[in-house]
């Protein structure tokens, strides 16, 4: 919700989310007052204080604001002024509100009384009041849930400091000692639960509530997971199986083949050939252990969980990095849980992440179509995988023994022969598996006469369902874009939208930015001048070129196009000069430029920050110890536009 209020002396623009309200304040003679406030420090934690001279100003001087919040449900009113000190900011955030509630803020100017050096703040003029209701993510088509993430690391330390412990941790393979407050290691179960809830900030609760909607056998759950070790999520899905819900989960399952080794050395077969064994990667192995750790009241439920719930995604071209859950009722897709959050302690309680519930049958259906294709474990970008419909004939033709076929391979073979799948699935399924298998496959004859099923790579299937986007989207449009894709056209699309920005860009980029984005970050605002001439010389998109003449007319007629452009970029960690030099050297060898943070950091439009912790004695901050690679920022969002009441911004959320 966004609303404004003005009493002629003070004005406020309030914007509410689910658990935060931002107040943008202004007063008459604001420039003069802002300069005065900037020169003063009433914070007794600062070691040096500099107060303006009384020779410059006589009489009462504005020194900040008093702000109080009233909860209309309880009638409780509290002051937001810590220790009674004036709030000396023109933008103030209240992070202690609850979702779906109405609040009233009372704002008043404060002066220092008669003398500039007076320590006592005195109210001046009539107070300004404004009402606002926070968003309720349990209602409507969209529910957005952010965890606490990095926003409260100092507050986390202050709140749970008694549980700080020294840990020897490994960072990029290097052992280091670090202070950690691990919520899982807090001895008192009540305190541990409180810490976990504080860090989750409603994200975990929303995820578990989403799964709990599947109450009986009339519901089905289809999920795709990368990291999968969060005990509460795994327990919730296992409980759904016990309730009779038909649950199917595609999980990342990658590894490498290594020589088989025993005590006496490398194992060889009778012909002297080295035998190999498949070793799962750590993500696959940890998920398997978490899956095996679950207990069940019913033996049949346990067998269903272990034998008929999980589908291994082995043939992706890279990582199967999905993290979504589809809720179906009576075989019809109803809702989807998506976002950047891996199903791990680190994803939910550690790094900053978002969970997004979409209550839309069309979008849920799009996810289900993608899930169905993914469940057959097709190749990503590589050539089509081949399986023979007559496995015994294929084995004799090759002269080699084949591994036992997986359920997916059996399903493909049965689909080719038009057979039912009752031998695979003991429980009724809501999707016609044979029809689904056949729809993503083509059948031809091998040289031996066997039927061969060639699966389309995921790139083909995805782009057939949703081609790359081209040009600005229509108002209020919602698009679902899956990966992998065969080209970088979608990166160019997002870069073009950034290039079009005239007022603001807000980007979270935990793993850095692509070259398409980096080129835009080197340039200036999309005003009439650079839209028509592209003077920065970096972006040469054909789509931008085709629309130049139209945009010049729009920019000239719209005064907001001349507004100052600001781009806010948030990284997970400080970019590395060593990594940058290495990337530039590789690109140079290939005859290509490489643009990164060290090139665009000084652009006047860019405001760049990254995750870090304070480590001095007075203000030390501690992490949870639940993350290994990404400590601070894992969510990927791009917001383009301006936050005004009458204008909607464009939001792009990247689920990875």
UniProtKB/TrEMBL annotation:
<dbReference type="Pfam" id="PF13091">
    <property type="entry name" value="PLDc_2"/>
</dbReference>
<comment type="similarity">
    <text>Belongs to the phospholipase D family. MitoPLD/Zucchini subfamily.</text>
</comment>
<dbReference type="GO" id="GO:0016042">
    <property type="term" value="P:lipid catabolic process"/>
</dbReference>
<protein>
    <recommendedName>
        <fullName>Mitochondrial cardiolipin hydrolase</fullName>
    </recommendedName>
</protein>
<keyword id="KW-0443">Lipid metabolism</keyword>
<feature type="domain" description="Phospholipase D-like">
    <location>
        <begin position="208"/>
        <end position="370"/>
    </location>
</feature>
<feature type="region of interest" description="Disordered">
    <location>
        <begin position="379"/>
        <end position="408"/>
    </location>
</feature>
<dbReference type="InterPro" id="IPR051406">
    <property type="entry name" value="PLD_domain"/>
</dbReference>
<feature type="compositionally biased region" description="Low complexity">
    <location>
        <begin position="385"/>
        <end position="398"/>
    </location>
</feature>
<dbReference type="GO" id="GO:0016787">
    <property type="term" value="F:hydrolase activity"/>
</dbReference>
<keyword id="KW-0378">Hydrolase</keyword>
<keyword id="KW-0442">Lipid degradation</keyword>
<dbReference type="InterPro" id="IPR025202">
    <property type="entry name" value="PLD-like_dom"/>
</dbReference>
